[in-house]
Amino acid sequence: MKKAFIVMMAFMLGMAVTSCKQGQKAAPTAEEVAADPVATLNQLVEKAQAEGANWSVDEWKDAYHTAFLAMSPAMKGMYEVMQLIQGEGAATDTAAINKAMSKAKDIEAEFGKLGGIVEKFDSIGKLYPNGKTVSEDKEFEKACLKEIGLPEDFNL
Predict the structure, then answer these.
(1) How many CB atoms neighbour CB 57 within 10 A?
(2) CA separation for the pair 49, 45 (Å, rounded)
(3) Cα–Cα distances in Å, from 1 out to 4, 78, 97?
(4) What is the C-alpha to C-alpha distance for residues 37 and 22, in angstroms, rounded to an integer?
(5) CA angle 82, 86, 89 (to 5 degrees)
(6) What is the DSSP annotation of the chain?
(7) Which of 65, 60, 27 has its CA nearest to residue 126?
(8) Residue 27 — pLDDT band, cuts 50, 70, 90?
(9) Residue range 100-113: average pLDDT?
(10) What is the pLDDT averaged over residues 137-153?
(11) How many whole angstroms separate alpha carbon 107 and alpha carbon 119?
């Protein structure tokens, strides 16, 4: 049950964020996004619904980058949880499992609202060819992971 919860959280966060901005500065800064990620993401969803059909690939990259910035603290936290449960002997180490579960609950409490918003954004993106291109761009995803200090093979 505990492992299923952690896997589900990782999946939810992974589905939520699949791309980021590569090589160009996104409109909002990391600090602006961090100040109120829920409001930022809700505005992003509204803008994507209203204007996304006309966005270029670069505009979709800007938008996905914003979503990525909003989710990056949660992704980093989930990476730490994954490291705890995948460490040597972690499967039988009750203290490591409890620490991982506690951290996963903290992440859910702090960032739980974001996953659904980003999933909605991603589903909007996939409606349009340029958005879908960005959403499915694995090289772009790898660059995003590198940007926040996660390994390229981190499963989104």
Answers:
(1) 14
(2) 6
(3) 5, 17, 12
(4) 20
(5) 145
(6) -HHHHHHHHHHHHHHH------SS--SS-HHHHHH-HHHHHHHHHHHHHHHGGG--HHHHHHHHHHHHHHHHHHHHHHHHHHHHHHSTTGGG-HHHHHHHHHHHHHHHHHHHHHHHHHHHHHHHHTTSHHHHHHHT-HHHHHHHHHHHT--TT---
(7) 60
(8) low
(9) 88
(10) 84
(11) 17
Q: What is the Cα–Cα distance from 10 to 13, expressed in whole angstroms? A: 5
The pTM of the whole model exceeds 0.85: no
Give the tokens for residue 2.
Answer: 């505990």
- pLDDT category, 15, cuts 50, 70, 90? very low
Q: What is the CA radius of gyration of the chain?
A: 16
The proportion of the chain whose per-residue pLDDT surpasses 90, expressed as a percent, equals 31
Token pair, residue 30, equals 């990391």
Alpha carbons 105 and 112: distance in angstroms, whole number: 9
pLDDT in the model for residue 14: 41
